[in-house]
Design a protein that fits this description.
The structure is a single chain. With 403 residues, this protein is an alpha+beta fold. It contains nine helices and four strands, in the order αααββαααββααα. Strands 1-2-3-4 form a four-stranded antiparallel sheet, with no helix packed on it. α3 runs antiparallel to α4, α4 runs antiparallel to α9 and α8 runs antiparallel to α9.
Length: 403
């Protein structure tokens, strides 16, 4: 085993055993707050929303006027060899947007801004879901590590008792070998559980931006169930898909407006060098749309709109199924937790205590003690997994009900 991994596992063992000073366990609400404040995912989504807001402000700005200077009739032959007969024009021109381009551009930018704001909210809810799951996984990993530590302690005591019984002639030597094998298995499981705990710790730390080497998850068994929402209320994913559809519709109008040519009007003053007279000049220009009528752009925007409609329909189906599945999974996990937390767990613990005392007194065999130990471990692990499944389902349900 690499030295770094061995050191990490030893640190985890000390942390679980309580011989090292442990930091206060982080609660779920604290983890959610840290994640929202420090996650790069949230920073990225916020920056994208700010950029969309800035583009929405910019979309309403019209084109700038242009100023131009034109010098004519110079540098030629005869009387045009110099600037004596030149004509200088100073003109101011302005492109006039036609076809509703500006309003269509503003509508697209506002729709994209709304989409970016909803995407920001989605990033927040997605991170919250991941933090909830990671927090629950760390708590479950810590509980499994504690159980593995306790199993090692019981296995050591069993091996010591078996050795005494063998020395006293009350048990054959094979029982001591079996007890030693159980101790080796328990120590191997302890190593694996500590490695899983360290991996879960790193995952939660990466999500919330924590550098605490002894990060520990607080108990979440008293968390209230996720609130229910009305079935006819659009969820976050549906609203996001609706915003994408609205933006696609707005792009159709923008593509149609782009096909309308703009007019450029100009006005200025012309000065004649030979007599120093001046005159007003004015004009306008307009493209002649015989080649580019933006037909391809309009067709593409219409196709994108059809795709967004289909995407919205699929999102509504997926959102409905996700809510139903998450609610069903949460209810089932809650029932499992309640069943496994009842008399069965208490009875398994009491049976193990009686079996250990009975084996030490010579009233029970090693096989009976092993069966009691396995039944106790199974009950504890099932409860840990049920609580983890409940936390995962609760995270999925909160995300599915996000608005």
């Amino acid at each position: 085993m690499p030295i770094s991994l061995r050191a990490a596992l030893m640190a985890g063992a000390l942390c679980i055993s309580g011989t090292a000073v442990r930091a206060e366990p982080i609660s779920l609400s604290q983890a959610l707050t840290l994640g929202a404040e420090q996650s790069p995912r949230i920073s990225q989504a916020k920056a994208l929303a700010d950029a969309a807001e800035a583009r929405a402000r910019q979309a309403g700005v019209g084109p700038n006027p242009e100023i131009g200077v034109t010098v004519e009739n110079f540098g030629g032959t005869g009387p045009y060899r110099n600037f004596r007969t030149s004509e200088t024009s100073l003109e101011l021109s302005q492109r006039l947007e036609l076809g509703g381009k500006r309003s269509a551009r503003v509508a697209v930018a506002k729709a994209e801004r709304d989409f970016a704001l909803l995407a920001f909210a989605r990033a927040q809810f997605d991170l919250a879901r991941d933090v909830r799951v990671a927090h629950a996984e760390l708590k479950a990993a810590e509980d499994r590590a504690v159980l593995a530590r306790d199993n090692v302690g019981r296995a050591q005591e069993l091996a010591r008792t078996a050795g005494l019984l063998v020395e006293a002639g009350r048990d054959p030597p094979l029982r001591k070998l079996r007890a030693d094998a159980l101790l080796a298995e328990a120590q191997a499981e302890q190593t694996r559980s500590f490695a899983d705990m360290l991996a879960a710790r790193r995952l939660l730390a990466s999500l919330i931006g924590s550098n605490d080497p002894e990060l520990s998850a607080g108990d979440t068994s008293d968390q209230p169930p996720p609130p229910e929402v009305a079935h006819d209320v659009s969820g976050l994913d549906e609203r996001l898909s609706e915003a994408e559809r609205d933006a696609a519709r707005a792009r159709i109008k923008l593509a149609q407006a782009t096909a309308v040519p703009d007019v450029t009007a100009s006005a200025g003053v012309r000065r004649f060098a030979d007599g120093r007279e001046t005159a007003v000049v004015a004009g306008f220009s307009i493209p002649f749309p015989i080649r580019d009528r933006n037909r391809g752009g309009i067709a593409a925007a219409q196709a994108d709109s059809l795709a967004s409609e289909a995407s919205l329909a699929q999102t509504r189906l997926d959102a409905k199924r996700a809510r139903h599945d998450a609610q069903f999974a949460f209810d089932a996990a809650q029932m499992r937790v309640e069943a496994l937390s009842g008399a069965g767990a208490t009875q398994a613990e009491e049976a193990l205590r009686i079996a250990r005392a009975g084996y030490a007194a010579g009233k029970f065999s090693l096989v009976e003690l092993i069966d009691a130990q396995q039944a106790y471990n199974s009950a504890k692990l099932l409860l840990i997994e049920a609580r983890l499944d409940r936390a995962r389902a609760a995270a999925a349900l909160v995300r599915a009900n996000a608005q």
